Structure formats: C-alpha cells, structure tokens
Hints:
The complex is a heterotrimer.
Chain A: H1 27-30, H2 35-64, E1 66-68, E2 74-76, H3 80-87, H4 89-122, H5 126-136, H6 143-153, H7 160-167, H8 181-206, H9 210-218, H10 223-234, H11 236-251, H12 255-260, H13 274-283, H14 288-315
Antiparallel strand pairs in A: 1-2
Chain B: H1 19-50, H2 55-60, H3 74-83, H4 88-120, H5 126-135, H6 142-154, H7 161-165, H8 172-185, H9 188-196, H10 201-230, H11 233-238, H12 247-259, H13 269-289, H14 291-298
Helix pairs in contact in B: 1-13, 3-13, 4-8, 4-10, 8-10, 9-10, 10-14, 12-13
Chain C: H1 7-18, H2 23-38, E1 58-62, H3 68-78, E2 83-87, H4 93-105, E3 112-115, H5 120-124, H6 146-151, E4 153-154, E5 157-158, E6 161-173, H7 174-179, H8 189-201, H9 215-225, E7 230-232, E8 239-242, H10 247-261, H11 273-280, E9 286-290, H12 293-299, E10 311-315, E11 328-336, H13 343-352, H14 357-365, H15 374-377, H16 380-383, H17 395-405, H18 416-431, H19 437-454, E12 458-460
Parallel strand pairs in C: 1-2, 1-3, 8-12
Antiparallel strand pairs in C: 3-11, 4-5, 6-9, 6-10, 6-11, 7-8
Amino acid sequence: xxxxxxxxxxxxxxxxxxxxxxxxxxxxxxxxxxxxxxxxxxxxxxxxxxxxxxxxxxxxxxxxxxxxxxxxxxxxxxxxxxxxxxxxxxxxxxxxxxxxxxxxxxxxxxxxxxxxxxxxxxxxxxxxxxxxxxxxxxxxxxxxxxxxxxxxxxxxxxxxxxxxxxxxxxxxxxxxxxxxxxxxxxxxxxxxxxxxxxxxxxxxxxxxxxxxxxxxxxxxxxxxxxxxxxxxxxxxxxxxxxxxxxxxxxxxxxxxxxxxxxxxxxxxxxxxxxxxxxxxxxxxxxxxxxxxxxxxxxxxxxxxxxxxxxxxxxxxxxxxx
Amino acid sequence: xxxxxxxxxxxxxxxxxxxxxxxxxxxxxxxxxxxxxxxxxxxxxxxxxxxxxxxxxxxxxxxxxxxxxxxxxxxxxxxxxxxxxxxxxxxxxxxxxxxxxxxxxxxxxxxxxxxxxxxxxxxxxxxxxxxxxxxxxxxxxxxxxxxxxxxxxxxxxxxxxxxxxxxxxxxxxxxxxxxxxxxxxxxxxxxxxxxxxxxxxxxxxxxxxxxxxxxxxxxxxxxxxxxxxxxxxxxxxxxxxxxxxxxxxxxxxxxxxxxxxxxxxxxxxxxxxxxxxxxxxxxxxxxxxxxxxxxxxxxxxxxx
Amino acid sequence: xxxxxxxxxxxxxxxxxxxxxxxxxxxxxxxxxxxxxxxxxxxxxxxxxxxxxxxxxxxxxxxxxxxxxxxxxxxxxxxxxxxxxxxxxxxxxxxxxxxxxxxxxxxxxxxxxxxxxxxxxxxxxxxxxxxxxxxxxxxxxxxxxxxxxxxxxxxxxxxxxxxxxxxxxxxxxxxxxxxxxxxxxxxxxxxxxxxxxxxxxxxxxxxxxxxxxxxxxxxxxxxxxxxxxxxxxxxxxxxxxxxxxxxxxxxxxxxxxxxxxxxxxxxxxxxxxxxxxxxxxxxxxxxxxxxxxxxxxxxxxxxxxxxxxxxxxxxxxxxxxxxxxxxxxxxxxxxxxxxxxxxxxxxxxxxxxxxxxxxxxxxxxxxxxxxxxxxxxxxxxxxxxxxxxxxxxxxxxxxxxxxxxxxxxxxxxxxxxxxxxxxxxxxxxxxxxxxxxxxxxxxxxxxxxxxxxxxxxxxxx
Lengths: 321, 304, 461
C-alpha cells in the first residue's frame, strides 16, 4: 500500500463545481502570458519528474526487452518476458490474489470510513473529536511498524487472541495461515488506512453548505435521509477518488505481506503478490530483466483495472477527471 | 473572492424530534465509536504494554499480552535503546526527522510552483504533461528502484543523504492538489492587477498568489512529511551506511538480526518494541499539536 | 528546514528555474546548497568504526556479526599497511538483497563482504567474486577442516576465507526426557521417532520443529542420509547436475512429513517470536540445530528463568550408526568482490580479519560463533569449555568439535536462493498436510530442472 496519499483540497463552497481539469479556468488571461513563464514554474518539478520517474522507467522498460540467464549472456528477446509473465503461474496467481483482495477489501474499508465520517459529521462532542483523532492515528504509524505490531498480536502462543480464545477453551486461529491470511492482511490494511480515508471523507462532508441540510429539514427529511440522500451524493466524487487510490495501492500490495512474511510460517510465499514477486526476481534471483517485465505487466493490469473502474463509475454520473 | 477559511459550521442539523429519540441515536453512535476506538487503539496499547516488559515477560509472561508483567522494565529498555551500539537509535531518529522535513519541504515547494504553473498559465505541452502526471501514480515502485540506484550511482550519490532526499522530492499528487486548489483560490483578476502594477511573474507569485495558497501548502507539506517519514523501500535500497539509516530501515535491520540465527547473546526484540514506540511518538505529537492545520487544510472544501 | 517557506528558500528555487533542466545540475545545486548549510552531508566512505592508521589504504567491508566493532578494532590496531572500513547493512537476506542490487548495478559493492558458503556459487557465476587462491588463500588452508575448505571452494578456486561454521547436533531438554522416561538421547532417527511417540502418548511436548523457513536444515538432513542434490563446478559454468528426487531425498522428506502428520513435531517457522516463545514455555523437547544455536537461544531469552539449567546437547541422530555422517548448517566466510579496487589488499583483509586469536576468542566466548580455525578447535580452553547454557556440559568436546572434524563439505549450486524458496514452499505444504514427502521431492526436481534450463544451464539429472 505505498501510493501517493489521496487528499483533494479545494476552495470552500464549491461542493458541486466543475471538474478539476487544468483547462477549466484561467483561459481569458492565459493567452497574454508567454508560455515560457508557465514552464519556468513547472521546470523544477519537471526536472525531478524526468530524472526520478521518466528516466528510471524508460531504463527499466529497456531492460525488460532483454533476457539474461545465470549461465548465459544478455540477449534481446523483445516481448518474450511479457509473454512469459502472463503464462507464469506465480505472476498470474499473484495478480488474481490482489484483484480478489481489492474486491473484498475496498468496499469494507470504504464502508467503515464512510460510516465513521458520517457519524463524526453528525456528532460534535469532545468524545467524537477524540474518536476522530484516534481513528486517524494509525496513519501516523509507518506501515512497517504497523505490520510488525500486528504480527506480534497474531501470535498464537503469546498474542491476545490466544488468551481470548483460551477463555472458551479453544485454540486461537492463526491469522496468517493458508485459509486465514486473506482476512489477516485485510485487518492490517483496514487498521492502517481506514482512518485516513475517514478524514478525507469527513473533510469533504464539512465542506458541504449547511443550508442544504436546513432546506432538507424543512422538507421533512430525517437524519438518515439527510445522510444518504444529500451527504453521500455530495461526497461521491471524493469516494471515487479514494477508491481509485485504494485500488492502485492494493494492486501494488507490498509492504505489509513483505513484513508479515517472516511470521507467516511459509504462507506468504516469495510470489504472493506481483510486486513481491518482482522484488524477489530482481533482488533474490538476480533476474532484473524479468523483474522489470513483471513490474510493467503489473502497471498494465493496474491501468486496465482503474480504467474499467472509472468507466463504470462515470456511467453513474461522477465527474472524476 | 474565494479565500480559504476554516470550516466554522457547528454541525447542527437534524434537530431532534424528541429528546429520547435523539439520545437513543446517540447511544448507538457512541457505542459504534467506542468499538472503533477500542479496535484502533489495541495495537498501540499492546505496544505500550510490551515496551515495559523484559525478554522473559515478553515471551513467557504470566499477565498476558495486553497487561503489565510483574517486572516493570520500561526504564531499563529505554536505557538500552539509547545506548545500544553507541546510541545509533538517536541518530536514526534524527535522520528520519531530517529526511522527512527536508524531503517534505522540497517536494511541497516544487508542488506549489508546478501546481500554480499548471493552473494559471497556458503553454505548449501542458495537457500532455498533465496526463503523464496523472498516469504516473500507477507505476509500481519496484520497477524504479534498481534503475534509480544505477542512475544515482553514476553520479556517486548512492549511500548519501541525497539518495533519499532527491527521489522523495517527486510528489505528483501534491502537484495535482495544488493545481486543483490554485485554480479556484487564486483569481486571475488579482494576478492581472499585480502585473498591471508592474510586478514580475515571480514577485506576483510570492506576494499575491502564495499567501492565498498557504492553507493547501500546509496540507501538502504535512502529507509529504508523513510520506517521507514512513518511507521504507527507497532508503532500504539506497543506503548501506547504518549511520544514515532512517528509523524504519533501522528497525528493519534489528528485526532481521533478531529473527535470524545470530544475535550474539542479546535479544533485540525488546529494543525493537520500545524502538517502535519511541519512533511513533514524534508523529503522534505532531498530529496532535498540528490538529488545527490538519482539519484546516483538509476541510478547506469538498472534494471533486 | 532551510528549504522551508521563506525568501531564502525561494531564491534557491528561482535560480533553479533558470538553470538548465539537466539532472546533474539540479543535484549539484541542491547538494551544494544544503550541504553547506547543514554540515550533515556525508560521503560514501563513512565507516561505522574508527580508522586507526589514517595513512594506510582503506578496504571497505560489510559484515553483520554483533561483535564486529571489536573484531575490526583488533584488525586495524594490528595493521599499518591496511585499514578496514566496516558497515553492517543487514543480517543474511537483507544484506544479500543489497549485494545483488550492487552486482546488477555494477557499482556499490564493498571490497570485502561476509557471506554464507551456500551463496558463493550464485555470486561467483555472476563474476562478482574474486578467486582468492591467487592471493594466498591456500596458505591458510591447513587451518581448516576438509569440509570447511570445500564449502568455500569451487573446484580449485577459493571464493572466501572461512570464519565460522555450524556442525549440527540435537539440543534437548533434560527435564522432559526425565519426566517421560527417555533414559538416553536417541542416536538414530528411528529411535528419535520412537521417543517422540512415547512422549506424545504420555501427553508431552513436541519433538522438534519442521520450520519451513529453514530449508538449509532439510537439505543437510537429506545429505546426511546420502543424498547428493547438486554437482557444480565453475570451470564448466553451464553444466549442472540436479538430483532432488532420489530415494534418499524422498525418504528424509517422507520421514519428516510422517512426523508432521502424526503431530510429533511443530510446524512453526524458526527464529520467529512465536517459536522462541514456544521454546521458552517448553513446547519443544528437542531442537535439531547447529553449534551456534546456544548463542541464538540464550540471546532470545531461552535458558534463563524457568527454562534455566534444563538444556543439554547430544550428537545428531544417524540413519546408520555404523557409518555416521556429519552435516553443517550456517556459518560464514569473507569474500573479495570483483568491484574491489585492490583485490590483493582486499584478500589480505578477508583472510586476516576475524582470524586473530583475540577476535576468535571474543566470538566463541560470547557464543557468537563456532570458529572453524583449527588453532581454536584444538585449543585446550575451547575443547574443555564448560558451557553455561548446557549447565556445565563440555559441549564442544562431547559433540560439536567431533562433528566439525567429521564434516566433509557440501556442493552448493549457483541457483541456491531459488532452490531454498522452492523447498520452503514444499515444506510449508507438507506442514499444511497438503502433500507427502516423496511427492514434494518429485515436484521439486521438476521445478528446479525447468528453472535451471530457463537460466541457460545444461542440466543432467
């Protein structure tokens, strides 16, 4: 789950304004300014972008078109590595796992964070403020440390689950076992990120003009109706944005399973997710050419998934750019 | 004029039809929140409890994972944390702070400039660059590590602080946020007026536009700092000198040592646990004390 | 900090705006600006240790043992002509990832690197290691047992200087053995199983653990039975023999799969906190392990408190007591990398560091290493040392030194990392009850042959 943090800020009272395309504003006066000035403002970022994203990416792509065996030299093989990736059980099963994971995880995570945000938006007591902070807190904890803590908590011999189940005289389930690892990882990720998503939705809710609620109240709407007929639709584009980022992050799932691998008794394999597989191909098996191809193939999968997702949400009236 | 302001509404809506009904609904809401607080606090509570235990208490304590053991070793653990390996832990903590603040600030400055440039200027290649920018968040990080490593080693920058700071200047999403914000928060008329007064483009930016962008600047800054602070993969690949490690990689080093077969008569698990706790404290304090900015920055308005 | 908002920060940025969009310029500008104002910029030559003789040329090194600071100081104090600049970049796997990155990048390796013997072939085939036979390695050959030397050699080439090893043995709990009437430690694997059944029938603890994350142990136990999984020699680098489904390999996997099936051994990964906690709380009556295990266990908090004074060690059970076979797990060696500027000087360090009496003594007395140097192995103090962990048992004399002397060495293939990963996956399946031992062996053979062919090897089976 290593992805740029999704938060959108925008000036107030623009809950239903136009999409945030750069084309949307500033056309009138823009033409008069020389285009060099615009570039000058963007240049520092463009340089960093070119050096630390475009250049490494181009280089990695170049490498993915070659193959090198341990016992052979490097040869140009074109698309062979990609063909190999999509017929490689390790890669295909890993992709299948992260897709299933995303399909189950994201709705749960969204339901939790949307639910909390709506409750917190409705209650403004000190308790609610404290709850907001505490639920947000895991975001301040590095994923490495979060995963480490849950690894301890999952321990069947000295974790709290052991004691809890011990009360009923049964053995605690091992949450990183072959049948439970799905849920075990889902819990870690939800714990780590739900509070963050909650804050974003909460911020969006706070930006809605209260006059809308007044109007609804006059029409006789109750709190549930206000929540689901007014609030949720008004923050729906925020939800779509968060979903896209959650989707990208989940498909690139890496840190949590990588850390918990050490405590999983072999359940989390070196090809558990595509990103972990790419990492091991590059660093453990010395096959950087194939690892680059896997990374690119994963990028393609992510791109298709996001495109499909946006296609369906767009149909339902979202204006996410 | 659309200036940013903190959300000031009191959240009064859905006034109660009856007092009893309202109380009921609130009880349910409070129970819901209470359960969530419990869930989100459990690991942190465990961390606090575990950091007071010695090795024996950790693995075979009688009080259980979620309560204190008879031996209260918090002080001893803390002392060994700060003295182990000549106090390398403090160095790691300092490095993390330095990387987070310098990388975060740098990334934010680049994002403000670029976001403003995208929002307020037309120029050749603008749309093209913008769509590449949006697409770039889909790139898997693993694909970038070795090429970046090779690139930086060509100019002799691997295993230096620059290998961590420079790549973390890249924050495409920060640019996107600034663009969205600047589009509405900085009126073109204001810029035109400044230019009429004879101000140069850069002065116009610093004196007119930047003050209007400040709330979003703070938010992006906080996000970038947290991002750099939590970074693990990049410094792991770039750094060999343990004295340059940030705290995440340092704790990872200890974890590797503790879970491998040779720890030389010393248990590192206790250090890892109390080290995790101490490393979490700075950001938690920052979160609590900067609460106003978080809320301010995030509740500037709604989302697209 | 200084890059924060403010006129100064923006001046820097303004200069950059004008600057050409070249990467090098940006880096130079930023490093120039911040390096001057913070004073924390550092060069690649930073060491974790002190350089004593500043005039001498410096050799860089990665190593992870906890007493390395003392070891490096010993070396640097004793040498005017060369100094070591040491860093610990991680234990085992973490360091190997870094080594592989640096090999792929063609830059970034230190001159000397600590490695386990099983990784040598994999790096040597990539041309990353220097054959130190050319630099006097064979002069110290006599300091080591035949097996120890074979582990660091590929044919006539020598790719590392051995430091420590892990002759295998069986650690057991005397209190459990007493309680359940096991009068003497099992000497054969049949007796081992019988004892395990007896203890289990009486409601006692598990008899060892088949952790999937220690595939090297399974490989060693298979070799003990007579398996010869790989043949490889760098003089014909494209030829490899892979034999993983022979009767001996299958039988050992079946034996352990049977123990798992009958619930006689644990299935938890080793070195995890979960495993330690099980060892401390008496869930395991035995631990099939190596000579460094007492150090690991006492470091993890075993042997203090309630589990104090209950441990003893016996030789590894055998398949055939008439023909006992000694095997090894772990240990380390110092290799010279091909990125070293001065390979001769680096070889001098690789052969000399952790080889002086003071360092070796510090290592074994603090239970960090089981040294391979014969001077130590034959010294009266070492042989007759009464181990505190084993309640005064002369473990070296009784068990570990004889085991080391009888060790004949293994042949490791250049594809060992992939093999370990595959063996680990099969062990996890065995532990989950999904697959039998023989079946796992057949599957391994097929996977490994396919992989080796994909890497361009010509494979014989």
